[in-house]
Write a structure and sequence with these properties.
The chain is α/β, with parallel strands linked by helices and about 450 residues long. It has 18 helices and 13 strands. The strands form three sheets. The protein has a five-stranded parallel β-sheet with strand order 11-10-9-12-13, sandwiched between helices.
Length: about 450
């Protein structure tokens, strides 16, 4: 099959919008456009996220389109758009109405700000328009746009006496409602609490829209990479200090995350005891695993730029060598953030280029393990199977790996989990090699 017929790795802006809407339990999303929005939602529900409820058996789905045909758009007919907005706002479980638009509808010059104002005047819940970016941006921009829209529109005005010990986290990628992402939220809050601080909510965390308002009383807003603009806006609105951090994955990254937060909040004494406890416990669990299972292994990564940089750092801490990293994101995004990772870097490679690069590593110095998402796995599975290369499915999307019990992917717990699944994948593949029949046997 030629490369022209293989699916590209990048996902659309609308996928990111759907991810964010799914991560707010009582949010309803109305998309002005054709019904292809419903097909995009299938990337989440029933595939990546077994707990998603964007589609519901009773027919009252949390995502709705306006079936905006070319004829309706040309005539300026927006009656169905108004009806959809009124229908979702009338739902008793609706806590937030998000309005989005596909490019064909947005280009006709519809007055979405007027639609939002009119609905706000009739209902007592937040209503916001998510800017259109389907033609120019990817899923990461779509997710970030929803967070920015929330930061601009939710009633989170500064309080007269914000509680300075309260910490809100903005920019967590809550890409599904399963136990792994819920464990990530719990791990972030556990680390914050370990410094004697009080968690004031995580954007996003899988709860209702009202829970996001807890951050209005935060004295510190921690910005994670998936929502930088939203964090800046929220910190300014609530009068909090802004603290930009990278994803806390890997022991060094977790230490840096906690040290930055401790310094900003004057909790240096609490930091010393917390790090001693956490690192001693982690070291005890890794001291045998790393030298016997992971040290010296050559690893390739396929991830978004934020997760990829964090994974590369953590994997190198384990004693592995990152020989290849592929980012499925727009080149300008990676260049703007100056992502530097060890080994060869591919930015938004075609499926053929990724296959070629992985094959070259396997034939050269060797390739022991690949960490990648399901979208990439479907394109390169043949190579991995034929060469006997183990893999770990990690991040979004993960169609073949699900979490029914708490298994964090961030923080100290997430670092231990990463080492665990890498070691298990290597061990399982070693067993398969031992059991493989000899040729002609």
């Amino acid at each position: 099959m030629t490369d022209a017929f293989l699916s590209p790795f990048k996902m659309s802006y609308q996928i990111g919008v759907l991810l964010a809407a799914s991560a707010i339990r009582d949010a309803y999303l109305v998309v002005d456009g054709p019904n292809c929005t419903m097909f995009r939602a299938s990337h989440l529900q029933g595939n990546h996220d077994w707990c998603a409820d964007l589609f519901r058996a009773d027919g009252f789905h949390r995502v709705a389109d306006t079936d905006a045909t070319t004829e309706r758009l040309a005539l300026g007919d927006d009656r169905l758009l108004r009806e959809r907005l009124q229908q979702v706002a009338a739902r008793p479980d609706c806590g937030l109405v998000l309005l989005g638009a596909m490019s064909p509808a947005a280009m006709t010059g519809r007055q979405y700000d007027r639609q939002v104002r009119e609905l706000r005047a009739r209902v007592h819940l937040p209503v916001a328009f998510v800017p259109c970016g389907s033609l120019t941006s990817d899923w990461l921009a779509g997710y970030a746009a929803v967070l920015q829209t929330l930061a601009e529109n939710l009633p989170c005005e500064a309080q007269a006496d914000p509680r300075r010990e309260r910490v809100a986290v903005v920019g967590h990628l809550m890409h599904r409602q399963e136990a792994d992402l819920r464990a990530d939220v719990a791990e972030l809050e556990r680390l914050i609490s370990g410094l004697g601080l009080e968690p004031a909510g995580v954007w996003l965390e899988g709860g209702p829209a009202a829970d996001l308002l807890r951050s209005a009383s935060a004295g510190t807003v921690v910005s994670l990479p998936y929502g930088r603009a939203a964090a800046r806006i929220l910190a300014e609105r609530v009068g909090a200090r802004l603290l930009e951090c990278e994803l806390p994955l890997g022991l060094d990254a977790c230490k840096g995350f906690l040290a930055s937060l401790a310094t900003a909040t004057g909790r240096e004494r609490s930091l010393e005891g917390l790090l001693e406890r956490e690192l001693r416990r982690a070291a005890g669990r890794l001291e045998w695993l790393l030298p016997h299972h992971l040290q010296g292994k050559r690893v390739a990564l396929v991830a978004d730029p934020h997760a990829g940089a964090a994974l590369a750092s953590a994997v190198e801490e384990f004693g592995c060598q990152v020989c290849l990293t592929a980012y499925w994101a727009a080149a300008e995004r990676v260049e703007a953030e100056e992502r530097v990772v060890p080994g060869r870097l591919l930015i938004d490679p075609s499926p053929a280029l990724l296959l070629e690069a992985l094959a070259a590593e396997a034939e050269g110095a060797g390739l022991d393990l690949v960490i990648l998402n399901a979208h990439a796995l479907r394109q390169v599975a043949g190579l991995l199977v034929s060469r006997g290369i183990p893999f770990v499915e990690w991040g979004f999307p993960a169609y073949h790996t699900h979490a029914l019990v708490d298994t964090a992917c961030l923080g100290i717990q997430g670092t231990l989990h990463l080492a665990e699944v890498m070691s298990n994948a290597l061990s399982h593949q070693a067993i398969l090699r031992e059991c493989r029949p000899e040729p002609g046997g």
